[in-house]
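TL;DR need structure tokens for one chain.
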Amino acid sequence: MALNQFSRTQLLLGQESMDLLADATVAVFGIGGVGGYVTEVLARSGVGKLTLVDEDAVSESNINRQLCALGTTIGASKAEAMAARLRDIAPGAAIVPVTARYEAASRDRFFPGDYACAADCIDLVSCKTDLIEAALGSGTPIVSALGTGNKLDAARLEICLLYTSP
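>> reply
TL;DR here they are.
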């Protein structure tokens, strides 16, 4: 096996799984503290196409916790700044930055989409719940991260399913 940036992942997952990752499109909504790490892990794992959605710009206060936040990216779109970083990490991947806010009014811009999976890393609960409903309604698997920003008691973190009973 020829060594490349995905060799160790291939050893773990196998070639068939690497081919699936290379053909996959994943949309990440929210490129802040959580979303930045999600996008970078996906790029480093071999996902072939990433759509990065965030309306915000990098600010100095982001530097302590967000991968796209550097002195040189202050004022830049988070989606664009993260896209530049990911292109350096995974030059073969198609990185599509979208400087926009996901909300009910913009839902049709994103769904139905050709996503193998979506990652919800949005802060606003109203946008988050609409995104989850839109993804599930279109048959797109979704992983959602709910905020713990400004929370000091890590013992209160809860991992659970978010669903509505029939």
